[in-house]
Each structure stands twice: as structure tokens, then as C-alpha cells.
Amino acid sequence: MKTFKIGGIHPEENKLSADKPIEVLPLPSKVYIPVSQSLGAPSKVIVEKGAVVKTGQVIAKGESFISSNVHSSVSGTVTKIDDITDTSGYRRKAVFIDVAGDEWEDGIDRTPEIKHEITLDRDEIVRKINEMGVVGLGGATFPSHVKLMVPEGRKAEYLIINGVECEPYLTSDHRLMLERGEEMVIGVKILMKALGVSKAFIGIEKNKKDAIVHLSMICSKLSGIEVVPLKVKYPQGGEKQLIKAVINREVPSGKLPIEVGCVVNNVGTALAVYEAVQKNKPLIERVVTVTGKTVQKPSNLLVRIGTPVSTLIDHAGGLPEDAGKVISGGPMMGKALTSLDIPVVKGTSGILIMKGEESKRAAALNCIRCARCISVCPMGLEPVLLAQLSENQLFERAEKERIMDCIECGSCHYTCPAGRPLLDYLRLGKNKTGILIRNRGKK
């Protein structure tokens, strides 16, 4: 069974909502839509207080090269444009809308009919994906149209679709593959056409046997798309780890997948591409897993962007009495929320409610030099050294020790017997080192 070679761990899975079909969450009374929802520059707000907007209408334009459009996920009235805390914990500009019905923009195909024929050419596909605000839904939220613009001197050979969903608890991608597999595969074909490649692989871990069987059946009628079963191993959903597992190519330090002829997209992104190109539908909603060991009704919910997290939790039976922490994402790479009014954004894959006893961190003790963090690092780094450099603000040295290669998977943190907050220091170090690199480039 295929997998990546270096490092990796096997945390308890807890896929409590794997058998829960996707439910459509009823519209909230208000939404708060941040205008910075991609890995890039914030979008420019183009609506004003008092404006009446429709579902699918552009409310913020992505004007920079790495940026994306943001659309209204509801119809209603813009009550204000103000800052709000987002899932990262930072204050971001957002458009506040009071919901009034659900009137959609003209031209969006909302029929359930699956549209198979791809009529747009490569350039038109890239423009449409840009126009519809599609970003990577695997977590990084990189603008999808930029990924399809292969740099001069590089050539895409393979498209790799990430159906791994290796984060414990999360099941939204699993349910998408089962319930929207046909449309998702058409999205794969669209991405292949945009890249000009003839071969695509869909990587799925073997703990999702039903998804492997279902997509294999769909792809058996097509040429050039292959489902690749993978051994269960965290963090196989990292694009560099997935490339290694699927085609045994290794992305060099500091480089992107295109260096080895690959472009990687998430299954949710492939579905969003299908809806954008074939249905003219902007990215205004996504599937979010709401889960936890004491959550009354673990669920996979189709949620409009901007919906407060509290609305999702209420639908899943409310906040359990023993709740200790609410996390956006999974337990390994997710971030604890400071408020339940924080809105769902394009990158929100799950809401995990952890019990008080399991959400408490163990007291940090002195490092015992066991090297477990080094043995599990999937990037071949020395997490203990990088954490020490970050703690002591030695960011130039951290850069030389390849801190920017860290994928923030948390494997080191998870395995540390001394309870050292390694991931915290690695995130801090990456942030500060990134600022250092950018400032150097401005001189």
C-alpha cells in the first residue's frame, strides 16, 4: 500500500460523522463575510452600507495577482462594513448582511441536472474560476486560478486530487466523494483541461473504502483518471507527502509541486470548479463537519459562507456542558476559536468541540533529547532546534535550518513526551522569518 516515506504518525481517527449524510443548514438571520478569504491580498469591498445584495453577487474584488473575489452568500441588506475576528484570531474587514430571503443572481444554474460536456477552453476555464472566487478548500485557500497558471519554463504532467482527509474527526471530504462524486470527477476533467494534462490521480486513504469503490466505478468509464488507495498515515494530506505517496516524486526544499510536474487540488476544490465552470455558481457555501466525542449530533453540513459558528453548533445539538475548546479545523492543525460568533469562511473544513479534560495541555517540561519529534517530522526537519531558535528570536538561523519548509502538521507537538509547545514556536518562527524574507526582498 502506497504512502510517503519520511516521518508521520497514527493519531486516533474518531471519524464520528463518517456515516452522516450532508445536510443543508438553514439560512441564518445574519452573516459576516470577511473579504480576506484566500492566501493572498485582501479583496476590495465594492458595496456600501445600505446596499441590497443578491445571493452570488460580487461584494469584494480580488485585485492583486494572488487574491480572489468574494461573493454574497445570501440576499439581504448590508448593515455595515467593519472588522470582525476570523478563524485565525485576527481582526479582518468584513461585510455584515441582514438576511432577507434567498434571491439569487441571474445566470446561476441551480438545477440538480449534472452537466457533463465541458464547452469552455483553457483560458476561459481559468477566467471563470477566478471570477467565481474559487480557492483551495483543503485548508490553504490558495486562489485556484493562480495554481492553473503554470510558470514559464515549467510543465504540468500530472494533476493529483487530494481525497486523503487525514485530520482526525473530519469527514466533509469523505461525504463529498460519496454524495457528489460524479460532479467532482467532472471538476477533475475541467482541471485537467485547464492544465493540459492527460493523467490525474485521486489519492484516498484506505479507511474510506466506500469512497474508493464509488470513485473507482465512476472513473472506470473514463480515460486518464485513476483512484489510488493509500495507507492510513498522518499527514498524508500535505501536498508534498501526497505527491511522494502517489507518484514517488520529491518536491525540493523551498519549491512548489510544479517543480516536479504536479498540481495538487482538494476534492472540495474540484467540486467548486465544477460548479463554477458548469453551473456559473460562485463559491458561496461549503461542507463543514461539526463533531466531537460529546456532541449530540455529529454532522456534515452544507453551510453558507459567513454563517456564525454558533449556528452550526446549535444545529448539532448545542454546546455540550463539558466543552473545553472549540476548534476550527481538526485537532492537529486547527486553531481554537475565541468566540462562537466567528463566521465560517471558505477554508473552514470542520468545527471540533473538545471535552474540557482532553483539551487541556500537559505542563511543558524540559526537553529530554529523545528525538521523537525529529523521527516523526514528514519534512525531515529538527523541530526541537527550530522551536528553540524561534523562542530565542534567532530567525535568520531558523531560516537556514529550513523553518519555512515546516507544514505545521503538529506531528512533533503530538509525539513530544515532555509536552513542549513545539507547533506554537514553529508557527511563530515561520511568521517572523517570513516577514524577514519579505522585508529583504523590498530592499
Give the C-alpha Rg. Answer: 21 Å
Task: Please tell me what the overall shape is.
Answer: globular
The number of strands is 17
Termini separation comes to 49 Å
Strand content: 15-25%
How many domains is the backbone divided into? Answer: 3
Q: How is the main sheet built?
A: 6 strands, mixed
Helix/strand-derived class? alpha/beta
Number of continuous helical runs? 14
- Provide the CATH top-level class of the largest domain: Alpha Beta
The helicity comes to 25-40%
Major sheet strand order: 1-14-13-17-15-16
Give the overall average pLDDT.
Answer: 96
Give structural notes.
By secondary structure, the protein is α/β, with parallel strands linked by helices. The chain has 3 domains: 22-108 and 282-357, Ubiquitin-like (UB roll); 122-279, NADH-ubiquinone oxidoreductase 51kDa subunit (Rossmann fold); 372-442, no CATH class. 29% of the residues lie in helices and 20% in strands. The protein is built from 14 helices and 17 strands. The chain has helices at residues 122-131, 144-147, 172-179, 181-195, 209-219, 239-247, 267-279, 309-315, 356-359, 372-376, 383-391, 395-400, 411-415, 422-442, and strands at 22-24, 30-34, 44-45, 52-53, 58-61, 70-71, 76-85, 91-99, 158-162, 199-205, 225-230, 262-266, 285-291, 299-304, 323-328, 335-336, 350-355. The strands form 4 sheets. A 6-stranded mixed sheet has the order 1-14-13-17-15-16. Helix 4 crosses helix 7 (267-279). 48% of the residues are buried.
